Amino acid sequence: MDALRAAWDAGDAVLPVDRRLPPAALFAAMAPTHLVDGDGRHRLSDGRPVDDGDALVVATSGSTGAPKGVVLTHDAVRASALATSARLGTDASDTWLACLPLSHVGGLSVITRALHTGASLMVHDGFDATAVATAATNGATAVSLVATALARIDPALFRVIVLGGARPPRDLPPNAHTTYGLTETGSGVVYDGVPLDGVEVRLGDGGEILLRAPMLLRCYRDGTVPLDRDGWFDTGDAGTWLPDGRLHVEGRRGDLIITGGENVWPDPVEAVIARHPAVREVAVAGVPDPEWGQRVTAWVVVDGEPPALTELRALVAETLPAFCAPKELHVVTALPRTALGKVQRHHLVEGTAH
What we know:
There is one protein chain. By secondary structure, the chain is α/β, with parallel strands linked by helices. The protein is built from nine helices and 21 strands. It has helices at residues 2-9, 23-30, 74-88, 105-117, 129-137, 147-150, 266-273, 309-317, 345-350, and strands spanning 34-37, 40-43, 54-59, 69-73, 95-98, 120-123, 142-146, 160-164, 176-182, 187-191, 194-195, 200-203, 208-212, 219-220, 233-241, 247-252, 257-259, 262-264, 279-289, 293-302, 328-331. Strands 6-5-7-8-9-10-11 form a seven-stranded mixed sheet, sandwiched between helices. Strands 12-13-15-16 form a four-stranded antiparallel sheet, with no helix packed on it. A three-stranded antiparallel sheet has the order 3-4-14. Helix 3 (74-88) crosses helix 4 (105-117). It is globular. The relative contact order is 0.10.
């Protein structure tokens, strides 16, 4: 937090870098002017300055392609921090634990939230269940996690848990809040299906989720402004309004499977398959098919004996229309995921399509 504050005091915007990745491609796309590391501050060639008021340049996760640099202003970062803290009921008396990658907005927003509210902060270099438990013992009251990390800790250790990334578990702890947001929104903007104060949500004619909010990005690093003339941002996701007025996110519009003229969203199919006792992880996507257009395909990571395709098809057909059942099954050792746990379905499809 001190390093971030020092950069801002100097009038700089900050690009957090994932140290696990080679920096050359990222630097070429984001064009930073300086690199700050353990050896000091170094000027980089071909860098481009930011505008006055810009606070952060954050690379998108690249879950569906090459990452883009999202430019967030100080006003946007402040709006996100204050709105999320108000919804969660956190303030200067809390201690936030940051244990997600700081190169992603889900991890970095913990830092900015603490900075703008005066809350105390603990920062870990990645997630470790034992270290997280120790942090709670030492006073951490709030934490941001993904579903896989939540499954490895005792949720009762914290007063507040913010849950983002992949699909949340079925048995959600009462102190955990599911969030919907993107890098372009500077963190979650919909909590437990309800937009934060100041956030407007509109569904287009095709169910596309449109957002207008003070925490939205100013532009991408290449100068592209993805807002329409009225300030609305098309998220690329589809959703519906539930009867109680909450927003239900169906998923990325590009993930929609159209098979034999029928629409199949992966998430509900994955949720059913995940109930099989032998399935530890599952991903569902559409693979090009000359007869059906796309065929529903499942990839599973299993414990023990893999289930048969016929078994999973029958399981899905118990609760969903028969056309949602997978026509193809692949048993894999791991699913390709982003650092925040989102499955990279395009990698699975690229390795399977024929």
